[in-house]
Amino acid sequence: MIVSIDPSTGATVEVLDVPAEDLDRIGDRAHAAHRDLEAAGRPGRAAMLRAMAAALEDRRTALVAVADRETGLGRQRLNTELTRTAYQLGFFADVLDDGAYLEATIDQAGTTPMGPRPDLRRMLVPLGPVAVFGAANFPFAFSVPGGDTASALAAGCPVIAKVHPAHPATSLRSRDALLAGARAAGLHTDVVSLVYSDDTAARLVQHPDITAVGFTGSVRVGRLLADLAAARPAPIPFYGELGAVNAVVVGRAAARDRGAQIGDGLAASFMLGVGQFCTKPGIALIPSGTAGAALTQALTDRVAAAGAGIMLSERIAGAYADGAGRLLAAPGVDVLARGGDAPAEDLQGFQGFWGSPLLLRSRPDALDGPLLEECFGPALILVEYDTDDDALATLRRFGPALTVTVHADDEDRPAAARLLDHAHRTAGRVVWNGYPTGVAVTWAMHHGGPYPATTNALHTSVGAGAIRRWLRPVCFQDVPQDLLPDELRDEPSCGPVPRRVNGTLMLGG
């Protein structure tokens, strides 16, 4: 039995009767699904992903209603997120249609300066069943029907998803929609399965049927699971998006000329979704003196006017309260503004899980301990710098992150160039005159970064490149045409894909 909780009250609103978590049985069914996904080929998997997107759309009203009840994120936000989730399923269908992700390469037999060369043909093939851990803050886009699942299914890997306890009913109904889409496309095996308990989660990572893991969550849990994956008799890849402090640096001219505008945008960014975004700005470096005054005032006004927001779960609300307490107790920190308080208990004694926005200021020489760690929730620390050298030196005190953002005008260009040179070495995405919250699903997107932002900076969890996590290369030497994968045959039956043939890139075949 699994309970669904309304975070606005803390009350249980639904009890889910879920089947026993027999990993051996689930693994056997995932292997059967793996065979079906491979047999479907790229065209069949693309059709399946598009049918899954259609199934989510067909169930939109019910899915958004239950997700709002479990997360308090609001129907407008959740409708937008569901649109993104359906879009990325279709997007990975487009990736399959394109076929370049396969890295198909052919070196035909012939004579070389080193002697005769055999016929060699290489491409990427799916790993097998994979585990996906849903995130609390995105019940659709980074959960059971989200990008990890979409990219894995596109690769040909069935998914065993660990349901996040913050939204179990949403996860169950989303899985049902995905299976309905798969069946509409002619795939009747369990291409997506669910597990619920934390104990099963640890065993899932260690289970011999699992070939890779995708995870979005805290550093503590991510490291625990990553260590389990590495300690297996045959270690498997663990792709964890964990946590880090995303920095924003505002140039002197930008702050002087448009400080209020930047302050308004920064306030909206760090308070978006009650600060529960992995890309939330956690630190902002702004010029001291009059240049930064308008920016600081705009931030202060926006935060003071903001109310408390519903957080996703009791655990997350508690962690935010603890983290905010550590920030407030740190030496050299003062409070610039606080948002409104959480509402009082209702007549039934329910209060729910709430977080209030917090704007702090720290001296540069006081940056240490909790000030260098992610506080997941609506908290932002301002640090003032005197010179461009000071700004760069302060930025260097923060470790790798998912994002670094620079706001700069033409006068700021020389300093900005130095900031960008540092930023691209330590972050997975560098943002210019924008805000890091919001990650587009595109061919060029990279959502990752050096540890602790992720456990593997080589890969992304958003965008076309996400499919690469679930694939491995195989080289076929002198294998007859009829026994080769279709994409490596001289005349592929499913149509041409980009291939490198004898060293030359052939975009049409």
UniProtKB/TrEMBL annotation:
Residues 4-449 form the Aldehyde dehydrogenase domain. This is Aldehyde dehydrogenase (NADP(+)). Gene3D superfamilies: Aldehyde Dehydrogenase, Chain A, domain 1 (3.40.605.10), Aldehyde Dehydrogenase, Chain A, domain 2 (3.40.309.10). Keywords: Oxidoreductase. InterPro entries: Ald_DH/histidinol_DH (IPR016161), Ald_DH_C (IPR016163), Ald_DH_N (IPR016162), Aldehyde_DH_dom (IPR015590), Aldehyde_DH_Superfamily (IPR050740), ALDH_KGSADH (IPR044151). Pfam families: Aldedh. GO terms for molecular function: oxidoreductase activity, acting on the aldehyde or oxo group of donors, NAD or NADP as acceptor. It comes from Dactylosporangium aurantiacum.
